[in-house]
Specification:
The complex is a heterodimer of chains A (122) and B (64).
Chain A lengths: L1 H27 L4 H9 L2 H16 L3 H29 L11 H19 L1
Chain B lengths: L1 E2 L1 H7 L4 H8 L3 H8 L7 H11 L3 H4 E2 L3
Antiparallel strand pairs in B: 1-2
Classes of the chains: A mainly alpha (122), B mainly alpha (64).
C-alpha cells in the first residue's frame, strides 16, 4: 500500500511538473498543430501514473472496502450521467455552456459523497 | 447475521487492530463485522473461524 501511495504522489508530482512544462513550451515555442496537441497532452503521462496507482490501491482493499468503493463509484457514475445529461438539455434552453473540465470535479464530489454514504452504512 | 466476534475478540484480549491484522482486513471491516453492519464472505468467515479456533456456526448465527 505504501508503494502505491508513493507511486500516486510521484504521478501527481509528475502531472504538475509536466503541466507547467507544457504550458511553458506552448507559450515559448512556435509549435505546429500536431506538436501543440502533443505538448497539451504531456501532463496526462502523470495522470496515467496516478490512475495506475489508484487501481493498485483498489486491488489491495479488503472485501468491505471494495464493496464501499464499488457503490461509491456507481453513485458517481450514475449521478454524473444524470447531472451532465440534465445540464446538456438545459444548455439547449439557454443556460451557459460549461467546459468539459467541469465533469471530473463533479464525478469526484459524487464519489466522495458515495464513500461517506458507504462509511455511514457500514 | 448475528455474530460473537466482538465477544470472542475481547475474551482473547485483542484490540480491533490486532484482529484486523490477524484477518488481513482493515480495522473498519472488523468494526463493521462486530456491529453486524457487514456479513463476511465465506473465505473471510473461514478465516475468522480459524483465528478463533471455532467453527463458523459457533461464531455466526442467522437472524431470526
Amino acid at each position: 500500500m505504501r508503494r502505491m501511495l508513493i507511486q500516486f504522489l510521484a504521478g501527481f508530482a509528475a502531472y504538475v511538473a509536466l503541466l507547467f512544462l507544457s504550458q511553458h513550451l506552448l507559450a515559448a515555442t512556435d509549435a505546429g498543430p500536431a506538436m501543440q496537441i502533443v505538448l497539451t497532452l504531456l501532463p496526462m503521462l502523470g495522470a496515467l501514473v496516478i490512475g495506475a496507482s489508484i487501481l493498485g490501491i483498489i486491488r489491495r482493499l479488503d472485501e468491505l472496502q471494495r464493496k464501499i468503493q464499488i457503490e461509491a463509484l456507481a453513485i458517481a457514475f450514475a449521478g454524473t450521467a444524470l447531472i451532465t445529461f440534465s445540464y446538456g438539455f438545459l444548455e439547449g434552453v439557454g443556460l451557459p455552456k460549461l467546459s468539459m473540465f467541469a465533469v471530473w470535479p463533479l464525478m469526484a464530489v459524487l464519489w466522495v459523497a458515495g464513500l461517506v454514504v458507504g462509511r455511514v452504512r457500514h | 447475521m448475528e455474530n460473537r466476534i466482538g465477544e470472542l475478540r475481547r475474551a482473547q484480549g485483542l484490540t480491533q487492530a490486532d484482529l484486523a491484522r490477524a484477518l488481513d482486513v482493515s480495522r473498519q471491516t472488523v468494526n463493521a463485522l462486530e456491529r453486524g453492519r457487514y456479513d463476511p464472505s465465506l473465505p473471510l468467515a473461514f478465516t475468522i473461524a480459524r483465528v478463533f479456533g471455532l467453527t463458523i456456526e459457533e461464531i455466526f448465527t442467522p437472524e431470526d
